Amino acid sequence: MADENPVRFGIMGCAEIARKVARAIHLSPNSTLHAVASRSVETAERFASRNGLSPTVKVYGSYSELLEDPHVDAVYMPLPTTLHLHWAILAAQNKKHLLLEKPTALDVGELDRILEACESNGVQFMDGSMWYHHPRTAKMKELLSDTKRFGQIKSILKILLFKIHSSSSYSGNSEFLDNNVRVKPDLDALGALGDAGWYCIGAIMWAMNYQPPSTVTALPSISRNSSGVILSCIASLHWEKEAVVATFFCSFLAHESMDLAISGSNGSLHLEDFIIPYEESSAFFTFTSGAKFVDLHVGWNVKPEETLVESELPQEAMMVQEFARLVKGVNNSGCKPDCKWPKVSRMSQSVMDAVIKSIELGFKPVYAAEF
C-alpha cells in the first residue's frame, strides 16, 4: 500500500544508474520522485522523457536548484566520485538526507568530511550498495551464524578454518575503456577498485561482521590504463586472531563475475550473482554442510543445497524503502540517523585505502594501525 506521506527524493545527476534508482523510487511504497537535476535543463528533460517520469516531477538545470527546493527530503547522488565531497556536503548542509552512490569518496579522509556534515546536520547517510538489502543477504547471514552447520569463525589453534573469496568483473569494450567516467582520473580515479572492488570489499567485511583485518595486501597482478587508473586488481585480507583469510578480484578486463564463496570449518556457501541477482523476484545460493569424500574418493557424501529466497520488490527498491523508512523516522518521529550505514561505508573505504597504500608501497602488507 502506498504511503500517504512518502519521502520526496531528488536525483542529482543523470548517470545510467540513476534510471534504475528512479524506477526503484517509483516502486518503493514509501517514496516518490519529486525532482531531477543535471548540469543542463536539456539533459534533465531528456532523462525525464526517456524514463517516462510524471509531468509533476520537477526538472532542474543545476544541482544547486535541487538542493534549494524545500520539498526535497532526500537526495540520491550518482555523480562521479570526484564530485562527491563538494555536493554531498552541500546536500547535508541543506538538510537533505543522502543516498550516495559508491564508491563514496576518493579516500576515507573525504568520506569522514561527508559523514561529519551528515551527522552535524542530522541527516541519514547510506551508500548505494543494493545487495545488502535483498532478503537473500539476511538468509545467508543466518546460515553463516549457525556454528553447528557452518562452523566456527574463530580458530583457537590458529589453523585456517575460514576463508572468503569475492570477485566483481566485467569486460569493457573499447568505447568503455577509452571514454567511460570510470576510467578517467579526473572523474573516478579509483577505477575498477572503486567501482567493482567496492562490492568485493563490502561482501568480505559483511561476512566478517565488520571486524577490521589485521593486514591488507595488494598482489602484483595489477593493470592500469595510460592515465594510471586501475583496470584490474587482486588483494588479500588477513585476520590473524581469527585465522581468517579473504581474497578478492576486481576488473574491467575479465568476463562478467559476481562471485562470493565463504568456507567455514564445517560448511560452505557460494553464489555467482551476489551484486545483481539473476532475477528480480527471487535469488538463490548454495550451501553445503558436513561434506566429505566417500570411500575411495570417488564422490561426495552430500551435494550442495540450493536455498531460494523470494523478494517482493527488486533489491534496489528495497534499498530505497529502507532508506526512506530511516528518513521518516528522523523527520517525523525524532529518531537519530542510523549509524550502521555510515560505519559500513567507512569500513569499505578504509580497506580500499589500504589496498591503494599497499600498491604504492610495492605490494607490501598494510597493517590495521595504518588504516
Question: Which helices and strands, and how do they pair?
Answer:
Elements lengths: L6 E6 L3 H12 L3 E7 L3 H10 L7 E3 L2 H6 L5 E4 L6 H10 L3 E4 L7 H13 L4 E3 L7 H10 L17 E8 L4 H6 L11 H5 L1 H11 L7 E4 L4 E2 L5 E10 L4 E8 L8 E4 L3 E5 L10 E8 L15 E6 L4 H19 L6 H21 L5 E2 L4
Parallel strand pairs: 1-2, 1-4, 2-3, 4-5, 5-6, 7-11
Antiparallel strand pairs: 7-12, 8-10, 8-16, 9-10, 10-11, 12-13, 13-14, 14-15
Helix pairs in contact: 1-10, 4-5, 5-11, 9-11
Description:
This protein has 371 residues and is an alpha/beta fold. It folds into two domains: 7-131 and 326-335, NAD(P)-binding Rossmann-like Domain (Rossmann fold, 3-Layer(aba) Sandwich); 132-314 and 348-370, Dihydrodipicolinate Reductase, domain 2 (2-Layer Sandwich). It contains eleven helices and 16 strands. The strands form two sheets. Strands 7, 8, 9, 10, 11, 12, 13, 14, 15 and 16 form a ten-stranded mixed beta sheet that branches. Strands 3-2-1-4-5-6 form a six-stranded parallel beta sheet, sandwiched between helices. The longest helix has 21 residues, at 340-360. It starts with 6 loop residues before the first strand and ends with a strand. This is Gfo/Idh/MocA-like oxidoreductase N-terminal domain-containing protein. Belongs to the Gfo/Idh/MocA family.
Q: Which shape, going by the Cα principal axes? A: globular
Q: Output the number of helix runs.
A: 11
Do you know the CATH architecture of the largest domain? Answer: 2-Layer Sandwich
**Helix-and-strand structural type:** alpha/beta
Please name the fourth-level CATH homologous superfamily of the largest domain.
Dihydrodipicolinate Reductase, domain 2
CATH class of the largest domain: Alpha Beta
Number of domains: 2
User: In this structure, how is the largest beta sheet organized?
Assistant: 10 strands, mixed
Q: How many β-strands, per DSSP? A: 16
Organism: Escallonia rubra
GO molecular function, one term: nucleotide binding
Protein name: Gfo/Idh/MocA-like oxidoreductase N-terminal domain-containing protein
Domain GFO/IDH/MocA-like oxidoreductase: 164-269
